[in-house]
């Protein structure tokens, strides 16, 4: 019966490719900042509705909703980059 050839002794074992850039952790202020932005944005919108469109800034009018949503969106975008 013929024998198998076996493995080539010169072939290197598999090595995992190296990453080009190490993932760095976020600074310590990152998580409290995005949580604060999301809470302030939510409170801005709630205050606008509860006070019958007079507060937080009456001169802005309906743009108060835009300010609240921008704050919420900024906090949400920060959550996407959180490590």
UniProtKB/TrEMBL annotation:
One of its GO terms (cellular component) is plasma membrane. The gene is crgA. Belongs to the CrgA family. The keyword Acyltransferase does not apply. It is a multi-pass membrane protein. It is found in: Cell membrane. This is Cell division protein CrgA. It comes from the Bacteria. It comes from Intrasporangium chromatireducens Q5-1. The chain crosses the membrane at residues 29-50, 62-80. Keywords: Cell cycle, Cell division, Cell membrane, Membrane, Transmembrane, Transmembrane helix.
């Amino acid at each position: 019966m013929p024998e198998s050839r076996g493995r080539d002794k010169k072939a290197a074992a598999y090595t995992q490719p190296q990453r080009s850039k190490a993932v760095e952790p976020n600074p310590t202020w990152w998580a409290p900042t995005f949580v604060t932005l999301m809470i302030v944005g939510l409170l801005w919108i709630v205050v606008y509705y509860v006070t019958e469109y007079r507060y937080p800034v009456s001169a802005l009018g309906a743009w108060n909703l835009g300010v609240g949503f921008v704050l919420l969106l900024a906090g949400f975008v920060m959550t996407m980059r959180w490590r």
